[in-house]
Amino acid sequence: MLDLELKGIVKQYDRLLAVDELTLSVNSGEFLTLLGPSGCGKTTVLRSIAGLEKPDKGEIFIKGKLVNDTPVYKRNIGLVFQNYALFPHLTVFENLAFGLKIRKIPTPEIKERVKKHLDLIRLPEIQDRYPHQLSGGQQQRVALIRSVIIEPALLLLDEPLSNLDLKLRVLMRVELTKIQKELGITTIFVTHDQGEAMSMSDRVAVMNAGKIRQIGTPREIYDHPQNRFVAEFIGESNVFNGKIIEKNQFETTVKTDSDLTLVVVNPEKETQENVSITVRPEAVKLYKQVPSSKNVAQGYVETIENLGPYTKYHLRLKDGSKIIANLSYSKDTFTYKIGELVFAYWEPGECTLI
Amino acid sequence: MHSHMRFVNIRRSTIQKRKVKKVFLTKSNLTPYLLLAPVVLLLVIFFLIPGLTQLSLSFYKYLPPGAVIGKLYEPTFTLENYIRYFTPTYLNGYFWPTIRIMFASTAIALILSYPVAYSIARTTSCKLKKIFMAIIIAAILVGPVVRVYSWLIILGKEGPLNSLLVFFGFGRINFLGSELGIIIGTSQFLLAYLILVLSSSIQNINPACEDAARSLGANNVHTFLRITLPQSLPGIISAVVLGLTLSATMLETPMVLGFGIVQMQGNLIYNTSLGSVVNLPFSSAASVVLIIMALTISYGVSYLLKSQIKWAK
């Protein structure tokens, strides 16, 4: 069942087209992330779903019902903000009871539900405190349960983790996903942090300039970026532009602008003559002698970054272009020195033709 | 120089270090007082000394003109000025009208200024905000005489407001020479100040709180009453205190709009110190009463309202 459907959403601010003919559907119980750089329109989409913005064009269906003209307070939406937006003048209990009182739920049940949800976030003793007496992480969790306690049709999260420090943020990723799965609530999560998107979501929609550029599971997005934007925005990519010179049953051969001959496993869809090839730095291997492999490029080591679990080598090729190779760390990994001439190579299956 | 001395001292013995530290501490302890000195001096010269002079003057004995040549009062201790003030003539003529006008005009100004302050605080356009602010500051800069005489015209028996009332089928109202006229003039005077105070306080309320309340099912009225209004209470308190103290000291407005029929405490002080019958001890007593009344009322009201805030940090 579809819990949310967006059809051709358009939103224009003065001269800026924030959302451009955006169509999206979200399954029941799914955790979908809108991922994109700031200003890509992801927050506008979220606010449109919530009813805080009115799209210029398009239709929004929540649980199959058209809600374009339904005001925010009748949409039954759980909303978590970046700054949590807890009511500072109300205690934690009153914050949590706010939505329930409006729904005319009897007091004993309110008490019971508040207790149940505070147990869910393992903070049973904080109900009489005011928000400013809580730590950032506690406020974050209270804001989360305040939005789910009303049993909303959808849970919308607007960069809820970005105000937390790094350690807590990583912890909260796990906690948030756990709570989401436990409650089975359909969730739309907005973030610019790809780590959050990759680790938490069932599906990720990568957005740029008001459009969804690719939608799929985190794995699909990472392994098979469909366009240059996604390839470069998600993780790191070495991108080569070139022309197809040969194509057989299994593989396509491309001559790049930097005069390399690269072989790629045939993509599922048809491509034009002018193409780009992307390969992840962790798929690139280095060798001292000419490797007996396809996809070989020769260059010298320009910079070495030691990053703990792996070492990042920046290679400069003859024609001035660059290749990045991430070599994972182990005690017997061969290391290279700056200025050394090396060969980079990778398997045809490791790269993607766009 | 200090840092240099400290640097040298690091290498010396601990005892010596301690001694030097003590010197530093006393020096740095003095600094805040020295920095405060100009303000304290200013306050002593311009507020404390005149205030105490007035206080002592209010206990002096009044001498009618000609009783002792060249003397307006006799420096003894007497309560006769206060006893004279607390009689029905002055209480009903000045004290109670002042209090009524203070509360009424502050309340009206508060109600009228809140929506304006709210929309200014929530305006996202910087340009529009500047225009609003310019208008408000212009309103404050209008001189009292211009302001009061404008009201004299508007509120007149044949003035535009009464014409409008007659046009819509109501009877004429005697605004002038009544507390109502003074209340109208005073509330308008307070508006600009209250808008400034309130809008800066409303600006501190996180707009996301209102969105959150709506997402939880609260309609606009409910959101305003349960979320926005309680959070603007600190701003309302400052606005009320400002409104009460400003309206307590009105002079031109009741002087012109009151027609001498309705007068406020300010008029009494003015009449007895600069008017036809000069009685400085009595005037001082009236001033002392005004100060105590204004302070008591504004502290009382703000105390009552503050007791509603249990959540402040």
Keywords:
heterodimer; A: 354 residues; alpha+beta; six-stranded mixed beta sheet; 8 helices; 20 strands; B: MetI-like fold; 2 domains; two-stranded antiparallel ribbon
Description:
- The complex is a heterodimer of chains A (354) and B (313).
- Chain A is of the alpha+beta class and 354 residues long.
- Chain A is 24% helix and 36% strand.
- Chain A contains eight helices and 20 strands.
- A six-stranded mixed sheet of chain A has the order 6-7-8-3-9-10, sandwiched between helices. A five-stranded antiparallel sheet of chain A has the order 13-12-11-14-20.
- In chain A, helix 5 links the parallel strand 7 and strand 8.
- The longest helix of chain A has 18 residues.
- The mean pLDDT of chain A is 89.
- Chain B is mostly helical.
- Chain B has two domains: 56 residues, no CATH class; 217 residues, MetI-like (MetI-like fold, Orthogonal Bundle).
- Helix content of chain B is 74%, strand content 1%.
- Chain B is built from 14 helices and two strands, in the order ααββαααααααααααα.
- Chain B has a two-stranded antiparallel ribbon with strand order 1-2.
- The two termini of chain B are 40 Å apart.
- The N terminus of chain B is likely disordered.
CATH class of the largest domain in chain B: Mainly Alpha
**CATH 2nd-level architecture of the largest domain in chain B:** Orthogonal Bundle
**Spatial sequence of strands, sheet with the most strands of chain B:** 1-2
Query: If you compute it from the alpha carbons, what radius of gyration of chain A comes out, rounded to the nearest whole angstrom?
Result: 25 Å
Biggest β-sheet description of chain B: 2 strands, antiparallel
What value does the Rg of chain B take, in angstroms?
27 Å
Number of domain units of chain B:
2
Strand content of the residues of chain A, in percent? 35-45%
Please, how many helices of chain B?
A: 14
SSE class of chain A = alpha+beta
